[in-house]
Input
Amino acid sequence: MKWSKALIPTLKETPAEAEAVSHKLMLRAGLIKKLIAGAYTYLPLGFKVLKNVENIVREEMDSAGAQELLMPAIQPPELWHKTGRYAQLGEDMIKYKDRSGREMVLGPTHEEVITDIAKSEIRSYRDMPKILYQIQTKFRDEARPRFGVVRSKEFIMKDAYSFDANEKGLNENYEKMYEAYHRIFSRCGLDFIAVKADSGIMGGSESAEFMVVTDAGEDIIAVCACGYASSLDPEQAKQQEGSYACPKCKNKNISLKRAIELGHVFKLGTKYTKALDALFLDKDGKEKPIIMGCYGIGINRIIATVIETHNDKDGIIWPMSIAPYKVIVMPLKINDEKVMQAAEKIYNELKKQGISCLLDDRDISAGVKFKDADLIGIPIQAVIGPNTIKEDKIEVKMRGKEDKEKIPLSAAIGYIKPLACG
Output
């Protein structure tokens, strides 16, 4: 993509509404644009990052044996009444009446809907195990949307559900998803902690949250040097700060940290299948409720959290795995024929090699180009200036590092490709 043809509306100043670092940089780098409080448009650069994250999630879920589907966002409230969660979600649930006067729900999550599918399609123990997942927009009427896409009214979630005939099968699928989550967050460049958690209104016998420590986090986790970690109720943690007995090693100096929750895995058991009569015929010929697990990831939150933990004073520093482009080619003087010929040659060759590349062909100062390149955070900067091109060389710099390498023009692709693909 050539920058002159792209929609990348960078901003010099930080919008007054932005609080968290990720919110500020997502707006300044032209990744998102606010429509209303809690709802954002993903502009082309941000959408590319979103799709890269989704691709990693899909690859790891598919590798773990899960099958993708897509469920409706519009749901009948009757299912929610049966499980008792209609009242539990209360004002967080977004509802409306259709033209016939029937109430509908914009799905905040899909346990009820997927259980209704299982009720129809899983009849025997022979039909299990199954893991089904989707990547879809959810809707919740947050009382206080904040930090950009970290807490919003409309967000994208990967939600997966396992169905088993017994506890052994549930435990096996839970472990598969637990391990898949480790791979997903690691591939996204995140330093995360898996902590024991309260299942809340989701229910079930056991759950774990995947947290990343950052000042923008609204959750509180207790972390001990022995490896123990657990999530805490923020209000309770505030009241009792300094008084926590690590339950594992009895260390009294356990520390409390702010964190963002990226994923949550649950052993739901039969909470939903009993309520919705999702039964199967077991080996002994008896009808029993299907045993479920549930596994969620906040796709938007991954992007925001990566930015929270990968930035400097100049802007974003994308991990290669989810960057919108791997390389930005920067001709510093577009009126110089040799500079532009070299830039076009590198740009076209990188594209042929399948390496995503942005060519900054704008007729602006070199200083502005460098500032914008640092702001949007493309990992590899290939700089072509009048002085270096006289030596038949270019400069290659990794975003976030000071060192520059002068590379012969003829060797540029061979030097850049391993960096982009490594």
